[in-house]
């Protein structure tokens, strides 16, 4: 049962481990502040690979879906969030030229209205004021990430409409919808230059060489949430996804104090808002906290 005065955040992700690599420190910050944070995971990651050499073993591959579920349980415990599975099957990441067809019955092939239904039901039950998800390109072009964006936008609109999905509970209108902006050009360049300045090898050199200015959307950032003190929790949650994350890999090569000094925020784009919240912002609940305080004070 949700509390009427409590702030609630719903983060919608495609696979287990996405919640720990996109906006995790922000979620941990809000949990510490007493916000009720829930992760919706669209698929079980059944068609994912084992990306950590230490976990690339037959017994892991044999029970990969269960292992990934166990990893998700560990990560959500570390982050302090709730989590619900939406129940769809991982589409996998097609490779080749031409690309092979997606597997029958996978998440990316489920019709939009059907795929959004479990999320609409969850929104109406959880009643979040704020949602986060991916941009229209999925953050990167994985078919499940793109589908996650599509159902999130659809559910944001539909959950508050009494004529949409009337069988799925009382309407609830989310006030704000954000897109995760994890790898922006300014952030990537700042950390890259700090690493080089400290005489360290940067993990971002190749990424910057391949960066296409024509496709850059860094200018769309509206909101930077200060959460550097929670980067350690973020990393612990990431490492809990042991099949997906190599703790000795290059993404952990930037010293923590450097990350916290150079870029101590996680960044978002405010994509939809039904409240007065001028940008730039430093709080996903900007325009909502004041309204909630006024409603409590008026009682």
Would you kindly provide a written description of the structure presented here, covering whatever features stand out?
A seven-stranded mixed β-sheet has the order 3-2-1-4-5-7-6, with helices on both faces. Helix content is 37%, strand content 14%. It is built from eleven helices and seven strands. With 299 residues, the chain is an alpha/beta fold.
Radius of gyration: 19 Å
How many E-type strands? 7
Q: Low-confidence stretches at least 5 residues in length (pLDDT < 50)?
A: 294-299
- Dominant shape: globular
State the secondary-structure class. alpha/beta
One letter per element, helices H and strands E, the order comes to: EHHEHHEHEHEHHEHHEH
**How would a crystallographer describe the biggest sheet?**
7 strands, mixed
Report the portion of residues in β strands. 5-15%
Mean pLDDT score, rounded?
93
The DSSP helix count reads 11
Specify the helix fraction band: 25-40%
Distance between the termini: 21 Å
Strand order of the largest sheet: 3-2-1-4-5-7-6
